[in-house]
Amino acid sequence: MAQINLSPSALNDLKSIFDYISNDSVFYAEKVIDKILGKITVLASNSKIGKKVREFDNESIRELLEGNYRIIYRIENEDEISVVRIYHGARLLKNL
């Protein structure tokens, strides 16, 4: 089972997502964050479950989708996965 590390950018993304959604509903913001984190935990045992990120030509940079959010992660090795960014799919990755 691989260790999952969240980059400072990914942690900041989660906070920003929570802050934005909680302006309307703290309850819904918590649910969205829980779903995203739940999806991330799946990576520990299934690192290649996501598809290759179309913006990069690199098999080790992959993504999972949770609702409208793209979870971008990098397979460092068989024992370590780094979640790099988490953002709304309507945004362009190159602008992040």
The total of beta strands comes to 5
**Outline type:** globular
Share in helix: 25-40%
Beta-strand percentage range: 25-35%
Distance between the termini: 30 Å
Low-confidence stretches: none
Widest β-sheet, arrangement of strands: 1-5-4-3-2
| Count of separate DSSP helical elements | 2
SSE succession: EHHEEEE
Which structural category do the helix and sheet elements fall into?
alpha+beta
> Mind telling me the CATH class?
Alpha Beta
CATH-wise, what's the superfamily?
RelE-like
CATH architecture classification name = 2-Layer Sandwich
Mean pLDDT: 92
Topology of this structure?
Layout: E1 3-6, H1 8-22, H2 26-42, E2 51-52, E3 61-66, E4 69-77, E5 80-88
Parallel strand pairs: 1-5
Antiparallel strand pairs: 2-3, 3-4, 4-5
Helix pairs in contact: 1-2
Descriptive notes:
With 96 residues, the chain is α+β, with helices and mostly antiparallel strands. The chain has a single domain, classed as YaeB-like fold. The chain is built from two helices and five strands; from the N terminus they run E-H-H-E-E-E-E. The chain has helices at residues 8-22, 26-42; strands spanning 3-6, 51-52, 61-66, 69-77, 80-88. The protein has a five-stranded mixed beta sheet. Strand 2 and strand 3 form a beta hairpin. Helix 1 runs antiparallel to helix 2. It is globular, with a radius of gyration of 13 Å. The protein starts with a strand and ends in an 8-residue tail after the last strand. The model has no long low-confidence stretch (mean pLDDT 92).
